[in-house]
Amino acid sequence: MNLQGLADWLLTTDPAQRGRLAQSGRAMVVMGAAVAAVHYFVAIGIATVPSVRAWTVVSLAGLAVAFLMVRTGWSRRWADPSLTVAQMLYALTMAAWAYAMLGPARGAVFPIVMVIFMFGLFAAKPRQMAWASLYAVVVFGLAMAFMAWRLPRVYPPLVELGHFIMVATMLPAASMLAARISLMRHRMRAQRLELKQALVRIEELATCDTLTGLLNRRHLLEVLERELQRSVRSGQAFCIAVLDLDSFRDVNRRHGIATGDQVLRVFAQEAQSSVRIVDRLGRFGGGTFVLLLCDTRGPLGRLAVERLRERVAAMQVPSASGEPVRVTVSAGMTEHHAGESIDQALSRARDALREAKTQGRNRLVVH
């Protein structure tokens, strides 16, 4: 198994889960470094072997269990699936235990505490960091008071009081810093969301007709060119139909532009519901539309356009006067021929549409 395969097996391929496991893994690495530092004090005779051995097993085992809980997905049933706060509280408990073990070297624990809080700065919420700092003050305060009572020569009470004042001052300050960072993070996330929404809106304006929501002329031509390239590669045919609402100018003149716009919107809804999801419908301007029927030969294309034409003939659009407006659609359709361009296929479809208009409208002509 290569390194990438091993990483995928250990951290999974889910981006969110991978991030949680990577964070948990980093916490284990930091704890491993702390264990190594504590064992250095054992080597120089400051800490005793049995107590450090027990502390080492409990420290590493706890974070390993947290990693397994995240890796198996068991932690997802909790509000914090990364177990960030739980791991912080556990690490703080182990740090307080180490403080009680190290005697003259106990000051080495304070940098470890700050590293533990740094892990929460970018993941935990401000309220969670506040509770974590309060927990740290309490657990270190208890450890300091207990060791000052039990071993006052090694843990002088006045020195421990000074240590407690430092802990009670610095850790809430770290919590306040976390709140500021969290606020900045939320603002950046909101800005990214606004930017994403703006980009989506810009893309919609660039590709969609604002009145009907269908593809606009420019984007539909791009879609037709892509379909042509796909057809060349696959050898599958496609059909193009040009649709035009009959007497649409009369609708605008008799009932007003607002009613005409509503007719266009209703037609777009009916047409979209009549064709397949893979087919693409766009507005070319006024009451003229173009329909792309993907992977479709002429006979099936004819059936699809006839079905659409019948649905349009049956629809009724309310008007300001209360009189329902009825419209029909004429269509010219063609199956794309191998070797011809989109412009050539569209030209044949337009010729078929003109013939349908000449024959009396509300009909389909296929060329």
Please describe what this structure looks like.
- The structure is a single chain.
- The chain is of the alpha+beta class.
- The protein folds into two domains: 3-200, no CATH class; 217-366, 2-Layer Sandwich (Alpha-Beta Plaits), CATH 3.30.70.270.
- The protein is 67% helix and 8% strand.
- The chain has helices at residues 3-11, 15-43, 49-71, 84-102, 109-121, 126-150, 157-207, 217-234, 248-255, 257-274, 298-314, 342-358; strands at residues 239-245, 280-285, 288-293, 329-335, 364-366.
- A five-stranded mixed beta sheet has the order 2-3-1-4-5, with helices on both faces.
- It is elongated and about 110 Å long.
Write a concise synopsis of the structure shown:
With 367 residues, this protein is α+β, with helices and mostly antiparallel strands. It has helices spanning 3-11, 15-43, 49-71, 84-102, 109-121, 126-150, 157-207, 217-234, 248-255, 257-274, 298-314, 342-358, and strands spanning 239-245, 280-285, 288-293, 329-335, 364-366.
Strand order, biggest sheet?
Answer: 2-3-1-4-5
The SSE order reads HHHHHHHHEHHEEHEHE
Q: How many E-type strands?
A: 5
Indicate the low-confidence ranges by residue numbers.
none
List strands and helices in order, with pairings.
Layout: H1 3-11, H2 15-43, H3 49-71, H4 84-102, H5 109-121, H6 126-150, H7 157-207, H8 217-234, E1 239-245, H9 248-255, H10 257-274, E2 280-285, E3 288-293, H11 298-314, E4 329-335, H12 342-358, E5 364-366
Q: Descriptors for this entry?
A:
367 residues; alpha+beta; Alpha-Beta Plaits; 5-stranded mixed β-sheet; 5 strands; 67% helix
